TrEMBL record:
Organism of origin: Nocardiopsis ansamitocini
Lineage, highest ranks first: Bacteria, Bacillati, Actinomycetota, Actinomycetes, Streptosporangiales
Pfam families: p450
Protein name: Cytochrome P450
GO molecular function: heme binding; iron ion binding; monooxygenase activity; oxidoreductase activity, acting on paired donors, with incorporation or reduction of molecular oxygen
Superkingdom in the source lineage: Bacteria
Keywords recorded for this protein, A-Z: Heme, Iron, Metal-binding, Monooxygenase, Oxidoreductase
Family of this protein: Belongs to the cytochrome P450 family.
Stored InterPro entries: Cyt_P450, Cyt_P450_B, Cyt_P450_CS, Cyt_P450_sf
């Protein structure tokens, strides 16, 4: 008798797939790109427990199939699991990398960006206003705002920024062929290697220079760690914030009653951002973690060496955590903790910056264009099992 093959997690319709998997149970085996079988974690309780479990690891050595040589070097998601930065580190190594990186990512430094974020948003809205009253909100605001912020933060010039944007977009596209993914990773590492070399010779007042000089006693980031850390910080700081802004705008445009509660002063823009983070998370699934030993969570045992896919998007719509109306966008809900920025040791360092950019973008957008409307009610999503964002978000307004 043949064993039934697990369902295939495709790069489209992530939210319906998440609901279907959650209905099957808190942990469900699925097939992800490249034919890899992983445990999808679907509920809030299970994801939170996995994210903080001491025997759930990030290091590739814990993945049995990889250790046996069964995962090829051109596997489409290899850059998500083989990066030499804190995203794939455990224990003391993770703590060391995070400690060195956090010296450049302090709350004080983020707050100091507020006025610059407002300047960037104002300039982007000026460009929108100079047109014919229509725009692709993603290309006009959601994409250029976080990319400008993150590239300025890391001292990246305009020409390099354009090349880097294209490479980062491809890195998040999990439908790329193995050959494309490999070429893209090589190009991105080379580009950021050039950035590190330039900043080493000519340091400036930017995070790349700060990371190069960051020390903890005699400890410092290696050259490879520097490049991989830049890939993590720039990629996460750009792609996820872009999707957060676009997802929040779309949620408000298609839930006009919720928008009205903000415009009449009943709720602040922070409420819209927090609900958007929960309701349509910019990151739906994060590959991969591994069971270091047999682990039983919510009555399901994950054998040692098996890979685990944390379903943050599914967890954020879990009725057990957020109520029977968890599938609805509602800024008035009694907000319980969500997992949009993960939990535990790998909680997102850039969470405060993402919130700052999104709240500023929403507030200034509706101040400038109070009659903003969506001209496509159900815009298509980019293909990915990881990130969750629109390919386009067309809007209309009075210039």
């Amino acid at each position: 008798m043949h064993q039934k093959r697990p369902p295939v997690l495709t790069s489209y319709d992530l939210r319906p797939q998440a609901a279907g998997l959650r209905a099957r149970g808190p942990l469900v085996q699925v097939e992800i790109p490249g034919g890899v079988i992983a445990w999808a974690v679907t509920t809030h309780t299970a994801v939170a427990e996995m994210a903080t479990h001491p025997d759930v690891k990030k290091g590739l050595s814990y993945w049995s199939a990889f250790s046996r040589g069964e995962i090829p070097p051109d596997w489409p998601l290899i850059s998500w699991v083989a990066a030499e930065n804190m995203f794939t580190a455990d224990g003391e190594r993770h703590d060391r990398l995070r400690r060195l990186v956090s010296t450049a990512f302090t709350p004080r430094r983020i707050e100091a960006l507020r006025s610059r974020v407002e300047q960037i948003v104002a300039a982007l809205l000026d460009d929108m206003a100079s047109g014919d009253g229509t725009a692709d909100l993603k290309e006009s605001l959601a994409r250029p705002l976080p990319m400008t912020v993150i590239t300025e933060l890391f001292g990246v010039d305009a020409a390099t920024s354009t090349r880097m944007t294209n490479l980062v977009d491809t890195a998040f596209d999990t439908t790329s062929t193995p050959e494309t993914a490999a070429r893209n990773q090589t190009a991105l590492m080379a580009l950021l290697g050039e950035l590190v070399a330039g900043k080493r010779d000519h340091p400036g007042d930017d995070m790349t220079s700060t990371l190069i000089s960051a020390r903890d006693d005699s400890d410092r980031l290696s050259e490879s760690e520097l490049v991989w850390t830049l890939i993590l910080m720039i990629g996460a700081g750009y792609e996820t914030t872009m999707n957060l802004i676009a997802n929040a705008v779309h949620a408000l445009l298609t839930n006009r009653d919720q928008l009205g509660l903000i415009l009449d002063g009943s709720y602040g823009w922070d409420a819209a951002v927090e609900e958007a983070l929960r309701w349509n998370a910019a990151v739906q699934n994060v590959p991969l973690r591994y069971a270091a030993v047999d682990i039983t969570i919510q009555g399901v045992t994950v054998p040692a060496g098996d890979p685990i896919l944390l379903g943050y998007g599914s967890a954020n719509r879990d009725p057990a955590q957020h109520g029977p109306d968890a599938h609805l966008f509602d800024i008035t809900r009694q907000q319980r903790p969500h997992l949009a920025f993960s939990r535990g040791a790998h909680y997102c360092l850039g969470a405060s910056l993402a919130r700052l950019e999104a709240e500023t973008a929403l507030r200034m957008l509706w101040q400038r264009f109070p009659d903003l409307v969506a001209t496509l009610e159900d815009p298509p999503y980019e293909p990915s099992i990881v990130t969750n964002g629109f390919t386009t978000l067309p809007v209309a307004f009075t210039p």
